[in-house]
Amino acid sequence: MRIALLQGLAGLPTTEDSLAALDDAARRVAAAGARLLLTCELYTSG
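The chain above was modelled as a monomer; its predicted structure follows.
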């Protein structure tokens, strides 16, 4: 199983912005073959 790690800014201006960035990252790593994307525990809320 291929696993991807997301290292980026946590707590973007809004939760919606964080979720949009997470969705984009998930789509990119899935296209690259990853089946699991890990983020920091507070990615969506900062």
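Residues 3-38 form one domain.
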